Each structure stands twice: as C-alpha cells, then as structure tokens.
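Our consortium's second objective concerns turning raw sequence data into structural hypotheses that experimental partners can test. To show how far this objective has progressed, the report includes one record in full. It was chosen at random from the queue rather than selected for favorable results. The single chain below, 238 residues long, was entered without modification.
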Amino acid sequence: MSPNPTRPLETTVAGDTEERIKRFLATASHDLQSPLRHIAMYAELLLDDLEETLDGEQLESLRMIMEKAQAAQRLTKALMSLAGGAPQVSPEVVDLKALAERIWSELVDETGAGDATLACQDLPSIRTDPTLFGMVLRQLISNALTYRGSSPPQVAIAAAQEGATWLIRISDNGSGIDPAHRERIFEPFWKLPKAGAVPGAGLGLTTAQEILTALGGDIRLDHSDESGSRFTIRLPVA
C-alpha cells in the first residue's frame, strides 16, 4: 500500500516557494539598509557643512540624494516587515493623483521614456499606506514602460468607488500579454519573455499581490491583447 502524504505535493511546493520569496526579500532588504543609511547620513552631513558654499542647483541635487536614500530606506523596511510575515501598515490619507505623478516622473527619468504620457485626472484621495501602495503603483507603471509596443507609451489611471471598495484601474497601450502566459504573471520568479528586457528577479507582480493582500485588497488582470493591458486593484475604502 502506498503511503498517504501528509499534505498534497502542490501545497508543499507552494509553501517552499513562498518561503524562498520571504528569504529573498528579507535578505535583499536587510543588505540594503546599511548602505542606504550611510548615503542618507553623508548627504545630510554635506548639506550641513556646505550649504552656504553651494549654488541652488547643487543644493537641490544634494537634497534629492538624501531624500531618495531616505525613501529607499522606508521601502526596504516595508519589504522586511512584509517578508517577516507581520507587515507594518501605516494608513494615512493619500492623494492618489500626486502619488501617481511623482512615481511617473521618477520612472520616466529612470527609463528615459520621454515620449510616454500619463492620464490620471480626477483621482481621489484614499486611505492606505503610501509607501506600500506606492510600491504597487511603481511596479505596474514600470511594467507599462518596459513592455511597450511600437507606439509611445500611454498609461491611464482611473478610480471609482463601489460600495466599500475602491477600484483602481491601470491601463496601457503596450504589447499585451500572450494568452499562454496570463495565468503565470503572478507566479514568483517567473518573467515575461521579452527580448532586451532588463533582467530581474521575477518578483514584481508577486510582491505587488502580497502587498495588496496586506492592505486588505487584491489585484487582477482584466484585459490584455495587442492594444494593451488593464489591471484592476481593489482596496477597502476605510
């Protein structure tokens, strides 16, 4: 008689994969904390020592270095708490339009997508954790700029309230996702095949999904074809 397993093989594999994700996020976030802390500290020291000798543009660049390092520290701390299984969620009122535009500006600079356009008029303020939710928005916008089609990238963000739920839709005019891959896009360590794409760990959408679960929401792919893709994020209103 063959032995009865204590749990299905699929459950074991899923558990092992989840543990790998947590170890990866915890290790990467922990290793980044020290250099980020030193970058922020030295930038602050330089500001204190050189503020009266630098011109306006130099001061602005130094302040930007310090602010970006501090922001990266907050992101890595959030990832460490997420990996630890007890995410520290700090909800506050967030201007969704301002958050989206700030992330957009940063990503356009990083990717060199100067021909890209963003439409996000009349977005509401929502109550959520700005650091964690910002990571989700950043991943979706980054994907839209990375997996672009032949035309200049166009991204649209819209939001509507349905009862006690916010529905936040992010649409793009990218190359779309092949039907053969749509069931796999949230799998950990899986990457959409694309020639010339920037190498990564394949955890972007997986992490976004985990973050939204911690925020009491979820994410799904609503539509994707040669005209582009649309993701919908669900978040509790309160």
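The partners drew two points from this record. The first strand starts at residue 92 and ends at 95. The mean pLDDT is 83. Both points have been shared with the crystallography group to help prioritize constructs.
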